[in-house]
Design goal:
186 residues, 50s Ribosomal Protein L17, Chain: A, three-stranded antiparallel sheet, 3 strands, mainly alpha
Length: 186
């Protein structure tokens, strides 16, 4: 009986499970969002919450404890210098598990997206139609930039013409040689 036992085994022995969660924690710190199965995502969420809590302590002992899990000095530095300060005002719940609609194609395992839930990143507002006045009339600074924009494409075209000049060893086309005419579509 597994009474009072916390955590999922994920079908692995202890060392394999630890390695799996460490690798997923590294990936989540690197990419800030990963796609995995729901059960792995829930297990990873607790590991990452503990890591972010260590980052909030921000002392030498906490860095060493985080290094025991991440085993990468660059990721520990990123955790403490970039990720941790973004959660200073938070009180837990540093990860977000979003269940995906489609299961994995091979074995129909339920999939989920795990991401770091930064408190400053507001949810995307509902899409609204843009106002016609905003779309049609560009700002004066943008209008002057658009007027100057056609001048820039001419320079690469001149460079392209210069690069088409034959180099040593290539034959140069003569005026006597017939040039192919483009086909006209009727």
């Amino acid at each position: 009986m597994r009474h009072k036992k916390s955590g999922k085994k994920l079908g692995r022995n202890t060392s394999h499970r630890k390695a799996l969660l460490r690798n997923m924690a590294r990936s989540l710190l690197t990419h800030e969002r990963i796609r995995t199965t729901e059960s792995r995502a829930k297990a990873l969420s607790s590991v990452m919450d503990k890591l972010v809590t260590l980052a909030l302590k921000n002392d030498l002992h906490a860095r060493r404890q985080a290094f025991r899990i991440l085993e990468n000095h660059g990721l520990v530095k990123r955790l403490f210098d970039e990720v941790g300060p973004r959660f200073v005002s938070g009180g837990g719940g540093y990860t977000r598990v979003i269940k995906l609609a489609l299961p994995r194609s091979g074995d129909a395992a339920p999939m989920a997206m795990v991401e770091l839930a930064f408190p400053g990143a507001a949810e995307k507002p509902a899409k609204t139609a843009p106002k016609p006045a905003e779309v049609e009339t560009p700002a004066p600074a943008e209008a002057s930039a658009e007027a100057e924009a056609p001048k820039e494409p001419e320079a690469p075209a001149a460079e392209a013409e210069a690069s088409t000049e034959p180099t040593a060893g290539e034959e140069t086309p003569t005026a006597d040689a017939p040039t192919p005419e483009p086909e006209k579509k009727d």
